[in-house]
TrEMBL record, chain B:
It comes from Candidatus Muproteobacteria bacterium RBG_16_62_13. Keywords: Membrane, Transmembrane, Transmembrane helix. GO terms for molecular function: phospholipid binding; phospholipid transporter activity. It holds the Pfam family MlaD. This is Outer membrane lipid asymmetry maintenance protein MlaD. Residues 38-117 form the Mce/MlaD domain. InterPro entries: ABC_MlaD, Mce/MlaD, MlaD_Phospholipid_Transporter.
């Protein structure tokens, strides 16, 4: 009886510890975001710091985005054609490819790749800066490490993500064109005209853009927070990098559903 | 890497992203075609609008000249009140023109076709009403009518 009660207490207190820990981390992450936002005006006046980071998270991610976009567009075209041709609706192939890319795959796949390529690099970089006491060194020299190191990376992520998503979708549509018109013989005129008459600027393209901006904020926020909050050991940095990719991917997928439900408004 | 090269790369990246966005907006989306410039609004009442939606095109002789901006029910007359916005470039549409709800293809989307009338002095202007309208063809009603015709024939035998 006594041991059962003791086990029960341990289980409950462990559960409580996990929940409290999660809430505490969320609270620290939120305070960290507020601190970042207060530092944004300082970096806007020294924008070159952010430009350096746009190179790191944007230009260096460009290749993986372009190649993935091209192949995603090509495979969408191939798969879509096989289904649409059964209904004699292969003229709608361009529409299908463009809508899937602009609404969903462009922002989401870009965010997932971004989390894997740029987010993990951000976390590892900041975590190592912390482990090697560079951040503490800055504080000693009265330089605020959050403003000097974190804010430029945060801004760069927000600038880079929508541009990368737009490039992904654009290259994807071209890839779809190459396969659909070039290989499968869909008429080029109907491929583009069906697309243009049915893809709406506001409901499709603008909402896709809003999605990618939100994903940019969330992914970079998670990446810089995990790096800044990492346990300053090699093990701690490895764990933080791992968490960045997992948390970013999960938040992107969940947020994608929420944003789609809000913008399409059918629920 | 020196500052100039880095800035060049970032500039290239941002420019490419903006070009992609512009391509999505104008080439993939309908930003270029969908906008009605300096338009004027005209009302029309229909008995039945079928599958007409807000943003459906308004055409004249098959050419797109505007779009549907609002659809509501006229509570007094139990009719559908449709507001059409017509591009300002097409100001000389006779006031006795007919607005028809047509379907593109057999099962395609529905749109409004304007058939010009004969009145050469009075043109449609902001707030006017199109009096002559033709309703949407509802496939179920059509099938119903065909069925009645068929059964009539068999009853006489």
């Amino acid at each position: 009886m006594n041991t059962a009660a003791a086990i029960m207490t341990t289980v409950l207190s462990n559960l409580g510890a996990i929940v409290l820990d999660a809430v505490e981390r969320l609270g620290r992450a939120t305070l960290f975001l507020v601190e970042i936002l207060t530092g944004v005006p300082v970096i806007l006046r020294r924008f070159y710091l952010a430009v350096q980071q746009i190179y790191a998270v944007g230009v260096l991610t460009l290749l993986i985005i372009l190649v993935s976009g091209l192949f995603v567009g090509m495979v969408l075209s191939l798969q879509g054609y096989n289904t649409l041709v059964k209904f004699g609706a292969e003229e709608s192939l361009g529409l299908m490819v463009a809508l899937s890319l602009v609404r969903e795959l462009g922002p989401v796949v870009t965010a997932l790749l971004f989390a894997g390529r740029a987010g993990s690099a951000l976390t590892a970089e900041i975590g190592l800066m912390k482990a090697t006491e560079q951040l503490a060194g800055m504080e000693m020299m009265a330089v605020n490490p959050v403003i000097r190191v974190i804010v430029p990376r945060f801004l760069a992520g927000i600038v880079a993500m929508p541009l990368l998503a737009a490039l992904f979708s654009a290259v994807g549509v071209l890839g779809g064109h190459v396969v659909g018109v070039g290989l499968l013989g869909v008429d080029a005129g109907s491929f583009w005209s069906q697309m243009q008459s049915n893809v709406d600027f506001q409901t499709d393209i603008l909402n896709g853009l809003i999605k990618s901006v939100v994903f940019g904020i969330v992914c970079t926020w998670i990446a810089v927070f995990e790096g800044y909050d990492a346990v300053p050991t090699s093990e701690g940095v490895a764990g933080a990098t791992n968490r960045t990719v997992v948390y970013s991917s999960l938040s992107v997928l969940v947020l994608d559903f929420i944003l789609t439900a809000l913008t399409l408004g059918d629920i | 890497m020196n500052r100039k090269t880095l800035e060049l790369w970032v500039g290239f990246f941002v420019a490419a992203g903006l070009v992609a966005l512009a391509m999505l907006s104008f080439k993939v989306g309908n930003l270029a075609a969908g906008d009605v410039l300096d338009g004027y609004k005209v009302n029309a009442h229909f008995e039945n609008i079928g599958g007409l939606k807000v943003k459906s095109p308004v055409t004249l002789a098959g050419v797109r000249i505007g779009r549907v901006t609002a659809i509501s029910v006229d509570k007094q007359r139990y009719k559908a009140a449709v507001v059409l916005e017509i591009d300002g470039r097409y100001k000389n549409i006779p006031s006795d023109s007919t607005a028809m709800i047509l379907t593109s293809g057999l099962l395609g989307e529905q749109y409004i076709g304007i058939v010009p009338g004969a009145d050469e002095d009075k043109y449609l202007k902001e707030g006017d009403k199109v009096f002559k309208t033709t309703n949407a063809v509802v496939l179920e009603n059509l099938i119903g009518q065909v069925m009645v015709k068929l059964t009539e024939g068999s009853g006489k035998k």
